Amino acid sequence: MKARAMVYIAAPALVSLFVSAAFASGAHGEEPTWTTTMIGWRIINSLILFGVLIYFLKKPLVNYFSERKEQIRRDLDEAREQRIQAEAKLKEYEKKLAGMEQELEKMREDLQKASGLESEKVVANAERMSVGIIESAKLAAEQEVRKAKTSLRNEAVGLAVELAESLISEKITEQDRKKIVEDYLDKVGGMK
After folding, report:
1. Which end of the chain has the lower number of beta carbons within 10 A, N or C?
2. Strand, coil or helix: what is 27?
């Protein structure tokens, strides 16, 4: 649909450029004479061109922007769902970490009861391992959360920008269009 909309926009723009270039070049290298009749016909031709463009492009552009708006809504819903899933994973990791700490504490107590000096070495080793395991699990959980947050933030920013673009394009009034046409005509009239 995007390529189709671009063709609808680009083709008339190119035709307009070629027509303007043809008028500007004059016939057989001669300087064009600007008369009020010629300017009047140019204005009428431009208005007809813009009318035809609006007639043919209005429906495809409205359809494109409504489809894009719906796609953005679906993407935001999907992003919310992914965020909920990421938060659920974080809670799951936190529960596992809490369970691991309890298991490690229990192992520590059992080892202290079992033997004297050897158990102290084993306990120290187990403590180092438990710290490593806990740190690894925390890092993995934090990385998952950061990754999910970054992904959600990037998606939300992209979607917000696209939604803003579509809303701005929908808010262009008839006065804005007339001002654009008048500015164009002023520029064309100033190219003597």
Report:
1. C
2. coil
pLDDT tens-digit series, residues 129-154: 888 888 888 888 888 888 888 888 88
Q: Provide the b/e sequence for 53-85 (b: ≥16 CB within 10 Å).
A: beeeeeeebeebbeebeeebeebbeebeeebee
- Is the pTM higher than 0.70? no
What whole-number distance in Å separates Cα of residue 185 and Cα of residue 71?
Answer: 37
Fold held by 2-189: Helix Hairpins (1.10.287)
For residue 151, how many other CB atoms are within 10 A of its CB? 14
98-134: pLDDT as tens digits: 878 788 788 877 777 776 667 567 667 878 888 888 8
Report d(CA 44, CA 170) in Å as an integer: 26
Q: Are 148 and 166 in contact (CB under 8 A)?
A: no
